[in-house]
Design a protein that fits this description.
alpha+beta, Metal Transport, Frataxin, Chain A, RNA-binding, YcfA family protein
């Protein structure tokens, strides 16, 4: 079963990402050690798409270096 959007958001916040807002159901997260922001779209209760999960994992991994 895929994770929910809210779970991906929690992972990003725990890794030090900051939500800088967005339009509608989009949220932009930035991290001081990452070059580019990551955008998560969807309502918190929606299932995350596989590409969203991969993006979050890659962004967290990149920022830990």
């Amino acid at each position: 079963m895929p994770p929910k959007i809210r779970e991906l958001i929690e992972l990003l916040k725990k890794a030090g990402f900051v939500d800088r807002g967005g339009k509608g159901s989009h949220r932009n997260f930035t991290h001081p050690h990452c070059a580019k922001p990551i955008t998560i779209s969807g309502n918190p209760g929606d299932d995350a798409k596989p590409y969203q999960q991969r993006q979050v994992e890659a962004a967290i991994k990149e920022c830990k270096k």
